[in-house]
């Protein structure tokens, strides 16, 4: 909608301050003045985008719903939201309804917030929601900043994203939003580049056009007093009660800053361990203490719900109790269900699972060096401790493996990280051993009691780089990634970190996490079915482009900021790229790797650069699929806090069906009735059905294969969801073994299960009996040679590239 049209609508306010529905005829509300005013307003809103003539029936339907549901009195400012909710709830394929819902929410935000960026920031400053230094920048550049705002970029939002923005991301007070969506993006841009208006404009346009989106903390806290910008805080939990209490305090400080928390708990002594005259209570009571602390954390001023993941190595004595913490049923004293859990698995354990050998469990007080070793050194120390009889007890490795898999199928976790892969391929290998991650398994960073790992994150929105013809603009992607690296590196100088150990890590490593989102949408737009060879090639090339641009730009920035203090002795300082740590080196000749290698050896501004994260928050803003996941459903059901329940369809698919006369109420209901699948709808062309297969309709090993393809270009790790239908123990065992053999750092972040390929209902108790009745077969603990061949990294040779009509790389000046 043009900005002039929006201003005209705001100037012609027709809604009275108090609306009395008792005067309305319930059947024909449009006959009465108040209903007529609602109708007139909606007509003007839709008329401003040229839809009034085709919207007479939708207008009547929306107003009827509002008039039938409204209370005795209602404030004028709430009516737009009520009409938006009515439009979004309509069971109709008519696209006027979601369009009207979006426009109504945006119009309501416009009425609440300031008309200009300066007005919004002034109001926020008056309410003490901005830092003085930031507001001074706004004052200094008032005219230039106001001129940058382009309200028409709001047309990219959906109804769901507009609602989420108002409810979660926009600065607001008790009366509603203080800023508009474009003001939010400009606020972030100004935080990234104060006093550099050229860079502010460029990075603002990238966000406004959805070329990339910063992480939720950056969107939420930029410009505020003590801007909290890190997405994660990773630190060990400690061993004695003093350290545990200190950990609780750090959890509170980190949670109030909006970051997810990763706790390393392997060093906690096992239950019954005697240290001096004190018998230790063990893992479970300690984690229950942290778990019970979470509701208190959520009472704070943080804008994001607290998220805590505990990480334990698989050799710990109480690993079996750890696996039970999130299960349903059982004694409450043995459960801690608010937190999430991750198990760190080493190569030696996997070898013993395959060989069906015993596995010895240790208390960390008797095996402290296991936590600080990996690879051959770990195996040597582990075997020494076994021979010396230091183990607590021994079980069969396969019995423990089956318990891990059963827990995953019943509760969705624990997540699995492969310790040796993480450390063998880390650019922080010269500092120490990594044995814990963040909340979603994508942050693989070193931390200890002196350093709390932190990270600034952003994700590129891949569908924004696909042309109308279905080509991918790799040159545009490279330019934007370089701007992201510059902006986030500069942002470290602005970020507030709540305790010294976090500041120490940020100063030493300046870690960044550049990820991606909307892969499934982008592949569909490029006519590449998710599990096709073309999709693998494109996914790999996209990851390669992001990684190269990030490394090269970080090397350039070392001339400005200097190399990060721990660069000396790092693998990068020896000229090793991430892909050099993998058996295969699947790089194309699209980039000058050798030239950049020389710059990288001289210094990089950042120790870490790339990740693959879930993007659950910012994907609601862009309207695309999360991270690198396949379509979970073609009819996704989402609950928007404070707004209600809606069903979302891929917009590009809806547009295609509408253009070909296939999108109507019947088609919409058929897709929903088919559990979000279009595969059995013969009227839809086969090639379109192939492009929009869901996670349950593709080869279930595809996410693992594509993660292996991307792995050589991800210097931290990847958040990986596995899809299991039906939820067989042996199926999940094979998938995890393949992920391990493929060299992945993350075996899984979460498991999605469906009782059967048809989605037939199965009661929880039947599901549990089904799982418990299955035996872990020897074949599920082995890998055949032909399976290994299927997981070879995708080749991106010139021949393959030529067959795909992929353009040459963009050459920077």
Structure, explained:
- Keywords: Deoxyribonucleotide synthesis, Oxidoreductase.
- Provides the precursors necessary for DNA synthesis. Catalyzes the biosynthesis of deoxyribonucleotides from the corresponding ribonucleotides.
- It holds the Pfam family Ribonuc_red_lgN.
- The protein is of the alpha/beta class and 813 residues long.
- It folds into 4 domains: 1-112; 115-209, no CATH class; 232-424, Anaerobic Ribonucleotide-triphosphate Reductase Large Chain (Alpha-Beta Barrel), CATH 3.20.70; 453-717 and 783-813, Anaerobic Ribonucleotide-triphosphate Reductase Large Chain, CATH 3.20.70.
- The protein is built from 33 helices and 19 strands.
- Strand 8, helix 15 and strand 9 (340-345) form a beta-alpha-beta unit.
């Amino acid at each position: 909608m043009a900005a002039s049209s929006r201003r005209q609508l705001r100037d012609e306010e027709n809604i009275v301050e108090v609306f009395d529905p008792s005067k309305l005829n319930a059947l024909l509300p449009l006959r009465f003045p108040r209903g007529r005013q609602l109708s007139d307003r909606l007509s003007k809103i839709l008329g401003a985008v040229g839809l009034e003539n085709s919207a007479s029936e939708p207008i009547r339907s929306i107003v009827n719903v509002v008039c039938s549901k409204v209370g005795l009195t209602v404030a004028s400012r709430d009516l737009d939201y009520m009409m938006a909710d009515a439009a979004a709830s309509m069971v109709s394929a008519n696209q006027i309804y979601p369009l009207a819902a979006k426009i109504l929410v945006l119009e309501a935000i416009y009425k609440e917030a300031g008309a200009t960026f300066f007005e919004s920031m002034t109001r926020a400053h008056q309410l003490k929601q901005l830092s003085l230094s930031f507001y001074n920048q706004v004052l200094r550049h008032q005219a230039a900043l106001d001129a940058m705002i382009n309200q028409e970029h709001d047309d990219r939002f959906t109804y769901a994203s507009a609602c989420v923005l108002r409810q979660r991301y926009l600065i607001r007070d008790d009366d509603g939003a203080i800023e508009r969506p474009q003001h939010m993006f400009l606020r972030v841009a100004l935080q990234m580049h104060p006093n550099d208006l050229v860079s502010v404009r460029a990075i603002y346009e990238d966000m406004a056009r959805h070329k990339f989106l910063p992480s939720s903390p950056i969107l939420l806290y930029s410009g505020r007093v003590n801007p909290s910008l890190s997405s994660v805080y990773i630190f060990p939990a400690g061993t004695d009660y003093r350290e545990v209490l200190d950990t609780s305090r750090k959890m509170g400080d980190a949670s109030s800053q909006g970051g997810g928390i990763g706790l390393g708990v392997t060093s906690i002594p096992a239950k019954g361990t005697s240290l001096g005259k004190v018998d230790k209570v063990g893992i479970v009571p300690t984690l229950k203490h942290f778990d019970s602390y979470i509701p208190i954390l959520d009472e704070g001023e943080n804008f994001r719900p607290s998220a805590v993941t505990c990480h334990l190595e698989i050799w710990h004595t109480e690993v079996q109790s750890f696996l039970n913490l999130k299960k349903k049923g059982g004694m409450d004293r043995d459960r801690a269900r608010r937190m999430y859990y991750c198990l760190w698995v080493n190569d030696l354990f996997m070898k013993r699972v395959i060989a069906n050998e015993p596995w010895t469990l240790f208390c960390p007080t008797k095996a402290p060096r296991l936590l600080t070793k990996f690879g051959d050194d770990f195996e040597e120390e582990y075997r020494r401790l076994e021979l010396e009889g230091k183990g607590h007890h021994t079980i069969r490795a396969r019995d423990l493996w089956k318990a891990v898999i059963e827990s995953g199928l019943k509760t969705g976790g624990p997540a699995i990280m492969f310790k040796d892969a993480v450390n063998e391929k880390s650019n922080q290998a010269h500092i120490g051993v990594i044995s814990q991650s963040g909340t979603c398994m994508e942050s693989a960073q070193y931390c200890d009691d002196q350093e709390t790992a932190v990270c600034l994150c952003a994700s590129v929105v891949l569908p924004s780089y696909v042309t109308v013809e279905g080509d991918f603009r790799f040159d545009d992607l490279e330019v934007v990634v370089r701007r992201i690296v510059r902006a986030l590196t500069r942002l470290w100088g602005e970020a507030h970190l709540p305790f010294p150990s976090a500041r120490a890590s940020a100063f030493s490593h300046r870690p960044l996490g550049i990820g991606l989102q909307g892969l499934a949408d982008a592949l569909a737009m490029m006519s590449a079915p998710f599990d096709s060879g073309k999709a693998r090639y494109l996914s790999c090339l996209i990851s390669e482009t992001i990684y190269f641009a990030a490394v090269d730009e970080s090397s350039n920035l070392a001339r400005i900021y200097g190399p990060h203090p721990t660069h000396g002795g790092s693998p990068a300082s020896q000229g090793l790229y991430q892909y050099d740590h993998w058996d295969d080196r699947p790089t194309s000749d699209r980039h000058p790797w050798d030239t950049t290698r020389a710059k990288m050896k001289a210094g990089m501004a950042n120790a870490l650069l790339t990740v693959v994260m879930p993007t659950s928050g910012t994907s609601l803003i862009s309207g695309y699929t999360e991270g690198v996941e396949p379509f979970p459903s073609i009819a996704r059901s989402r609950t928007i806090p404070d707004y209600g329940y809606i069903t979302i369809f891929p917009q590009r698919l809806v547009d295609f069906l509408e253009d070909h006369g296939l999108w109507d109420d019947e088609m919409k209901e058929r897709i929903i009735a088919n559990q979000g699948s279009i595969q059995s709808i013969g009227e839809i062309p086969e090639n379109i059905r192939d492009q929009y297969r869901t996670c349950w309709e593709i080869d279930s090993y595809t996410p693992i294969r594509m993660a292996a393809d991307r792995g050589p270009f991800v210097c931290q790790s990847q958040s990986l969801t596995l899809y299991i239908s039906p939820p067989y123990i042996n199926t999940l065992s094979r998938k995890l073994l393949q992920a391990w053999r493929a060299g992945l750092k993350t075996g899984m972040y979460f498991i999605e299960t469906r009782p059967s390929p048809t989605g037939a209902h199965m009661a929880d108790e039947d599901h549990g009996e089904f799982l418990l009745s299955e035996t872990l077969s020897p074949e599920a603990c082995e890998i055949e040679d032909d399976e290994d061949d299927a997981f070879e990294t995708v080749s991106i040779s010139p021949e393959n590239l030529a067959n795909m009509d992929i353009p040459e790389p963009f050459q920077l000046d």
